[in-house]
Amino acid sequence: xxxxxxxxxxxxxxxxxxxxxxxxxxxxxxxxxxxxxxxxxxxxxxxxxxxxxxxxxxxxxxxxxxxxxxxxxxxxxxxxxxxxx
Length: 85
Hints:
This protein is an all-alpha fold. 52% of the residues lie in helices and 0% in strands.
């Protein structure tokens, strides 16, 4: 059974991912599912250990940076409902 999730990426990343998926005759959803599947097959201790880390480094323009936002549950809830208006 498929479940829907909402993800947020910067526009440039989305465009590159769409082109990659299209060139490989796969939907962006299935590409994302494939990557998550690969990441979760083994217990990795850090992001750099992921099987796609080398690929991400080669494809990325410049140094790879992982951006993490610490947000409260309340701010996430407000952001979610703001998108539903």
